[in-house]
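REQUEST FORM: STRUCTURE PREDICTION
Request ID: SP-0412
Submitted by: Lab K.M.
Chain count: 1
Length (residues): 293
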Amino acid sequence: YKSKVVKMLSSFLRHLKSRLLLPILVTVLVLIVLQVVIALWVTQYRVDGLVDDVQSTLLNGDQQVTDSLGKSKQTISLAIDNLSSGTENALNSTLSAQLGEEQKRVEQLLVESLQDTANAMANIMALAAPNAIWDGDSPRLTRLVNDLHRNDMVLFARYYDKEGNPLTRFLDKRKPKVLALIKSGEGRGSFNKLLNAAIKDPSVYVVDVEINPRGAVIGRFVLGVSNDKALQASEALSVRFTQLIGQSKKEVNQAVAVEAQVTSNAVDQAISQTNQISTKTSETLKAAIAQEA
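STATUS: Completed
RESULT:
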């Protein structure tokens, strides 16, 4: 076997020395080398093109996913804004209606309580007067009226006999509301003007009680009280309700803003992770294709 190989090599070397065969052999070798180089270049070109196509496809897909997530983020943000606005309007409407009704109810209760108090005072004053009326003791009746004026809500009080003649004439003009009512009222004398204006004024409650200890009317007691404190308390309640609504709206908006930021951050993180995964996948595929090539 070795002798055969030696003979073949010897024959090949003799052919190389031949002037006729040498150019042919060289040409063949050159063609073989060129063919190999061209094949390698074409293969590498195809590999590079495939890598570029893969990268382009991944980048396009990544961009589409990013755009889709971006649009989703905008849609979510818009939905959250609409939710915030709708919640704020609904809360404002609901609370305003409920608290408005509650304010009216509280105001009515305060006014009714004040009126009940005025009725009770008038009845007590009527019960305390018969003996002084029978005795014609005007100073005693005046003391009762003066003592009653210690209550800030009392604007005026007066005793009358059964013919309607005044038994007391005390009038506290130190109170601004009394002076204002006298100025706006009609009639003869300060008290008649005061009584005339008070009956027309919704902020004043007037009580007229008959004095009839034994079933026969011997006189009347007229009392006027101011509803201002009840109305002021109602106004203060309205201010507190308005503050409550404002605070509730603020807290709702803050809560929605926090959740909106959390959602926005989650979408941004999803976009970032998508880009990272796409880049990593592209690099991995490129390396694998290059290795196979």
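NOTES: The chain is about 75% helix and 10% strand.
Reviewed by: T.R.
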